[in-house]
């Protein structure tokens, strides 16, 4: 129920409802008795300002995280590239 409720909060169009429901969800998750949800609720309470900004403005750092992941993968597979300029070129060409 908590998972589906959070899904509904994320997909709601009205920010005012998202804001109200998020804090209700956090209270319910804290009182759920489920260790994982309690930990999740603590994290959401700590980052509530940022989460609400993501709801309000629709911005995420997903694209940046994707680029960072791609660079990490290139770094792992290009073992012995000692020349930074070559590695930089490899990044720019991918």
From TrEMBL:
Q: Which ranges carry the Transposase IS204/IS1001/IS1096/IS1165 DDE domain?
A: 1-91
Extract the PANTHER family matched here. TRANSPOSASE FOR INSERTION SEQUENCE ELEMENT IS1557 (PTHR33498)
Protein name, as recorded = Transposase IS204/IS1001/IS1096/IS1165 DDE domain-containing protein
List the taxonomic lineage.
Answer: Bacteria, Bacillati, Bacillota, Clostridia, Lachnospirales
């Amino acid at each position: 129920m908590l998972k589906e409720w959070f899904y509904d909060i994320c997909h709601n169009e009205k920010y005012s409802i998202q804001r109200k429901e998020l804090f209700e969800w956090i209270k319910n998750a804290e009182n759920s008795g489920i260790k994982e949800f309690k930990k999740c609720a603590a994290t959401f309470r700590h980052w509530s300002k940022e989460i609400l900004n993501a709801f309000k403005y629709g911005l995420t750092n997903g694209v940046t995280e994707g680029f960072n992941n791609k660079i990490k993968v290139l770094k792992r597979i290009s073992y012995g590239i000692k020349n930074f300029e070559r590695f930089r070129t490899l990044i720019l060409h991918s």
